[in-house]
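Input record (one chain):
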Amino acid sequence: MPAALLPQLLLKMEIKPKEIILIDIGSTSIKPYHFKKQKLTALTMKSLPLKDGFTPELGLSQSNKDQLFAKIATVMSTYKNAETHVYATALFRRMTAAAALRTKQEFKNRLGVKLTIISHPKENKYLELAVTGKYMAKDSVLFINIGGGSTEVVVLKESRSIKTQNINLGVGNLNAEYPLINQKGKVIYDQVKEYIKPFLKKNKINCKVAFITGGELTYMQRAKYPLQKNTLFNDNDHPLMITYLDSTKRNQEIFASFTLRDLEELIPENPTWTHGTRAFLALADAICEQYQAEIVVPSNANLINGIVRAHFNW
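The corresponding structure, as predicted from the sequence alone:
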């Protein structure tokens, strides 16, 4: 090979980092992940109410920005040899073009990293990738990802998306609508579900199996749901399942009888995460009911799983 061609060839080669930190920023949380040697590991999630003080024109409040940068810097300092990628959804999509540009520049200036704001369509694609190939069923499969300010619903058939629904409702909205929701016995479960229904589009597709993401596997295990071995497909990321009837029964028990302290003790490493539990349960049930799901597969897979499969899982 002529020596003159070697630099051109090297430019075309994709140099992939050996170690990666991926950070998912939503409306209420920062979820960091470590990826090395084909293994993705969730690191400790941090709660941060980024929606407080947010405006589309100005973006995040200065206080929240400072806390956000500090938390990311802490993760980066722990994994100094890793290449860091930061992704944002929810609130960040509501920023004006000028505010989004300023925010991206601040990430570059203060942390030296690129901020990628994921659009709704791209998020849906990444969510599809998170379970593509995991369950090759002939029937339609439901995929639900509930966030602080929005919810994504994807219907898959043979690993292809046939319907997507982006709902402008998340646990943060429901907590604001029902300020007493975290006080035991103060808010009725069915009342919350009825409030949710008008936000859901009319549906003619039935999905026997529903994947529910967002740490649902860990939560259900710790909250002692009557989970069963996953007999639908073999996958280490989705080892368990539960009937919808058993799931909704346990959801109602927890909604009615658990105190906020009880919920916090389920996730001691990040107790604030559980402040959205009741809202999450009602929203997930309302969607499963709409699609007439019979089996729920709790999943810890999310946006980052899809991004890794799309861009880094070589």
